[in-house]
Amino acid sequence: MILEKIIRLVEEAGKILMEATDIEACVEEKSGRANFVTEYDKKVQDFLFQGLKEILPGAVFIGEEEESHAALPKGYAFIIDPIDGTTNFMKGYRMSCISVGLVKGGCPEIGVVYNPYQKEMFWAKKGEGAFCNGKAIRVSEHALSDGLVLVGTSPYNEELSGRSFEWAYELFTRSLDIRRSGSAALDLCSLAAGRAEFYFELILSPWDFAAGALILEEAGGTILSVEGKELTFDQKQGIVAGNSKAIEAWKELMESGVLA
Ligand code: IPD
Ligand code: CA
Ligand code: CA
After folding, report:
1. Which atom number of ligand 1 is nearest to the Cα of residue 183?
2. Which pLDDT value is given to residue 168?
3. Which of 101, 118, 129, 189 could form a disulfide with 122 if both were Cys (CB 3.0 to 4.6 A apart)?
4. CA distances from 243 to 8, 141, 227 (A)
5. More confident residue, 23 or 188
């Protein structure tokens, strides 16, 4: 089965993160504010490309650390973030993951997200539910007012900082508290596992959410673009995600002009 093979491969790739040494010596800057890549991002990406090629020959690969990115084909494509949470990884903050999404004709079919620090393997297959370490997971039923809000700061896009923190403030005053993990894929999995209620980030790339979006939807959650539209997997976009109550509360805040 493809899903099981991907899970085994991603688990194996997790060892590259866990065994990494001297990370700060192999950091390079990328374009944008505070945007870095390490040798390990590339190592994990190469390892996944090799393995996934054998699992599904003919699939297109779209990996964050490639020089240029293929267009989404009509057939299968793997959309990969070899390390989501690179700044955390560089700092030894122990909150990063490997994210592998498989889409067909632009629609997600499989999502696998692995946090090797917590040894938590999240996965979903379209129509078959979402799981963490083999146990079915589900979004929470708490309202926003009784919930945790996960904030994505779009760190590489300084022009979005003001708006991000205005949203964070408004949502903070309407919830129990906010959190900032440093990994978009793990934020989506936290919603899916019912550990938090709402998440937003004003710009993300498809590899940040390709796997997590399916895991969240299969766990009963909703993910939309910040314009309130269906997600697409071929371009950068802002996203909002959460359980149905939190998404409704967000829509009201948008309609009333509290969030702009
Ligand atoms: C980043 C993380 C972070 C989010 C950024 C992403 P990276 O991915 O998911 O939480 O705020 O927008 O780009 O660069 O660590 O793979
Ligand atoms: Ca990422
Ligand atoms: Ca990354």
Report:
1. 10
2. 98
3. 189
4. 30, 7, 17
5. 188
State which of 95, 113, 151, 183 you would mutate to test the pocket of ligand 1, scoring each by most atoms of that ligand within 8 A of its C-beta.
183
How confident is the model over 178-204, as a mean pLDDT? 98
Quote the ligand 2 centre to 98 CA distance (angstroms): 9
pLDDT over 70 percentage in the chain: 100
Euclidean distance between CA atoms 254 and 161, whole angstroms = 18
**Least confident segment among 36-40, 129-133, 184-188:** 36-40
Long-range contacts of 16-23 (CB under 8 A, 24+ apart): 16/40, 16/43, 16/44, 16/47, 17/44, 17/83, 17/89, 17/96, 17/98, 17/116, 18/116, 18/117, 20/89, 23/89, 23/90, 23/92
Any ligand 1 atom below 6 A from CB of 63? no
Distance between CA atoms of residues 225 and 238, nearest Å = 6
Q: Measured in angstroms, how far is the CA atom of residue 195 from the centroid of ligand 3?
A: 23
Q: How many CB atoms are located within 10 Å of the residue 217 CB?
A: 21
Of 208, 209, 236, the one to substitute when testing ligand 1's pocket (max ligand atoms within 8 A of C-beta) is: 208
Any atom of ligand 1 within 6 Å of the Cβ of 208: yes
Helix (H) or strand (E) holding 169: helix 161-172
| Chain segment 221-233, per-residue pLDDT in tens | 999 999 999 999 9
